[in-house]
């Protein structure tokens, strides 16, 4: 602040007030909270020492489950999206008069409940049915036969069916395989899905004759 109003009068005051300032510039430091955004890759201009942190989050996937027939499926946990490799338990719940017939799509088999690990966007179908078939076979084919009682084209869920293996001449029954097990030639099967049953027979190896000592053979 000065009383002079002309340049020539103010000049001596300004010059007398002027004083040189000496400054020193150090190395640049990272600015706290700096954000480079979400673009990948990103271009960054280096102006000194910087600390950069990259943040990662799990990839999210969907798990779409549908029902074919009368029934429903529950997911545990039940979420819109899942982390990579997250385990989800699926339970098939058939309606009255229906039965669970199996999984298809990104999950197969008859396990209920079943656990699936989500590794991609997945689609799974639970199939429910009101009737099922029983397919029988003999191994070898000429070793014998398999009979069903009652003998019908289809069976209701929970129906009891007697399955009997009968060996042909020169063969004997050994065991069941497929949806039956054991060595009894007659067993009860409770219908729960489409069943495949195989009876295994073995061909006889002949007979041994034992004679008393001293008898000429």
What are the salient characteristics of this protein?
3-stranded mixed beta sheet; single chain; 217 residues; 3-stranded antiparallel beta sheet; 40% strand; 1 helix; mainly beta
Summarize the structure in words.
Helices cover 5% and strands 40% of the residues. The protein is built from one helix and 14 strands; from the N terminus they run H-E-E-E-E-E-E-E-E-E-E-E-E-E-E. The strands form five sheets. The protein has a three-stranded mixed beta sheet with strand order 2-8-6, with no helix packed on it. The mean pLDDT is 87.
Radius of gyration: 42 Å
Poorly predicted segments: none
Strand residue percentage: 35-45%
Main sheet, how many strands, which sense, barrel?
3 strands, mixed
Give the helix/strand class.
mainly beta
Strand order of the largest sheet: 2-8-6
- Tell me the total number of β-strands: 14
What general outline do the C-alpha atoms trace?
A: rod-shaped
Total helical elements: 1
Q: What sequence of helices (H) and strands (E) makes up the elements?
A: HEEEEEEEEEEEEEE
Percentage of helical residues? under 10%
C-alpha termini separation: 149 Å
User: Can you give the mean pLDDT?
Assistant: 87
